[in-house]
Amino acid sequence: MGLRSAQWYEGQGRNAYIHRAWMRRGVPGDAFTGRPQIAIANTASDLTPCNAHLNEIAQSVKNGVYEAGGIPLELPVVSLGETQVRPTAMLWRNMAAMATEEMLRANPVDGVVLLGGCDKTIPSLLMAAASVDLPAVVVPGGPMLTGTFRGKPLGCGTDVWRLSEEVRAGVLSAADFTRSESAMIRSRGHCNTMGTASTMALVAEALGTVVPGVAGTPAPDSRLLEAAHGTGRLAVEMVAADRRPSTFLTSGSFRNAIVALAAIGGSTNAVVHLLAIAGRLGIELTLADFDRIGSRVPVLADLLPAGRFLMDDFHRAGGLRAVLREVADLLDPEALTVTGKPLVSFLDDAPIWDTEVIRTRAKPLVEHGGIAVLRGNLAPDGALIKPAAASPHLLQHRGPAVVFDSIEDFHARIDDPGLDVDADSVLVLRGCGPKGYPGMPEVANLPLPKKLLEQGVRDMVRVCDGRMSGTAYGTVVLHVAPEAAAGGPLALIRTGDIISLDVKARRIDVDLPDSELAARTPAEAAVAGFATPQRGWERLYVEHVLQADTGADLDFLLGSSGSQVSRESH
Ligand code: FES
Ligand code: MG
């Protein structure tokens, strides 16, 4: 089969001349005759500090592409810095995916190497690659090295939540809190906890889209450059083999991703991202699959936020392959990787080097891991909880709701000494779903009331239609679907209603008869806070975004259009 790029470059006509001539800026003379054009979709950006080093990685990819006979072409794509972008990076995930998909399709490229790191970047790149369906392989940018503060390691994200609670509880001074800031980010790379970035890199490898053994390599590690070089070579091979996402990603690949997600104790955000990627491939994947497959899997990675260690410990201890080897019987033996070989074929030589960091199957961190999917009259289409990050004593709980109509309402009232709240209360926050906020921000891990923190309370049941950071912890019921702004019953709840959570029974309910719920109308203060954007991306997003239980993609972006472009530009 001829190269796709030949549609631009082949022949003696005027258009081929134009396509070639403008690209002759130092490339070899034979660049346009039979050599695969490999795009490097690069999310490097000074405003995405976790990905700022990807230009160096791109250079190694380029070397590998050239070496294998291809032509590397750097393509800067929309980048999303989790900590900087407002109102939430998730609002822009689908935009980044759409822009990357269209630019890959519009340009004369035959294959693509995807460079991502910070939370939304790998998901958006994979969504794009699935929809344009060109040979594609990910190089994850890798986690940063562990910084220390006063002799103790700091987990990015997780320790911000912990230290800020300590300030509010009066056990850490504000000055010391600020002092820890410059110790938090020790090196290039993404968050070093098992947050969303680490999770998505590892899950992308389990899915088959990263060369096995590469994900989790720390960003400053020389071996990452070597892997990037090798991945550049591989991209050229993938074009020759016509190894596109649709040719090797199957429901078995997603099963492997879910097993990995559970065994590493990964972020709840991976659920929305995997659902969205599957939606682009037309592979049927539901919330129920995550519970059914994941709940049989033990958590083996003892990493923050659920455990003790950090990503460079994880890599030193053997990394993802060592984890997967322990649960190899749960994996789909046929699911392939970008290499053309099955994932399981890479697990033979993958020992655990430190059984404190990566537990054996016989001594797991948590017997049954995964992400539990709850249903009930509060979440007819489902909600999630990550039991490993929750408090065991709260997994079955009944308590009166204290309802907040927006995050601003929450901040205004949560520390009010007069707020009627105790340790048994259930904090409910609504208006934070995909449509309502918009963009489904990471706010579900609500800070606890100051007066309760001072009494020593460290966890409470919280319920929200938003997400939480993968670095966060607590008994948090999140991704409630439908969200309040999409007609979900969360909009009907009043302070004082009794909420009951039963994780074992997979239920989240409000103690009200159906007739009472049916008779209620959405709270006016909540409705007043729902987003009503008038123009631009936000308007497009709010009008078309789907709910969390199906991946929060835009309805018209589901599926794939392939890489065909029917018309010339001149
Ligand atoms: Fe970029 Fe955590 S903020 S990975
Ligand atoms: Mg995050």
Estimate what percentage of residues fall within beta strands: 5-15%
Structural class: alpha/beta
Principal-axis shape equals: globular
- Average pLDDT: 96
Oligomerization status of the protein chains: single chain
Q: How many distinct folded domains?
A: 3
The biggest beta sheet reads:
8 strands, mixed
Rg, please?
Answer: 24 Å
Bound compounds, please?
Answer: FE2/S2 (inorganic) cluster, magnesium ion
* Number of separate strands: 14
| Number of helices, counting only DSSP H or I runs of 4 residues or more | 21
Determine the fraction of residues in helical runs and give it as a percent range.
25-40%
Query: Unreliable segments (pLDDT under 50, ≥5 consecutive)?
Result: none
Biggest sheet, strands in spatial order? 7-8-12-11-10-9-13-14
Span from first to last CA?
Answer: 26 Å
Pfam families: ILV_EDD_C, ILVD_EDD_N
GO molecular function, one term: metal ion binding
Enzyme class: lyase
Family: Belongs to the IlvD/Edd family.
